[in-house]
Amino acid sequence: MLPIRYIEPVFRPPSEAESLILPVTDGCSWNRCTFCEMYTAPQKKFRAREEAEIVDSLRLTGERYGDRIRRVFLADGDALALPTRRLLAILTAIRTHLPAVRRISSYCLPRNLRKKSQGEINELAAAGLSLAYVGAESGDDEVLAAVNKGETFASTRDALEKLGAAAINRSVMILNGLGGQVWSRQHAENSARLANATQPEYLATLVVSFPQGEQRFRAAFPAWKPLNQHGLFVEMEQFLSALQLKRTVFRSDHASNWLVLKGTLGADKERLLAQVRQAIAAPERAPLRPAWARGL
Question: Which CATH class is domain 14-291?
Answer without folding.
Answer: alpha beta
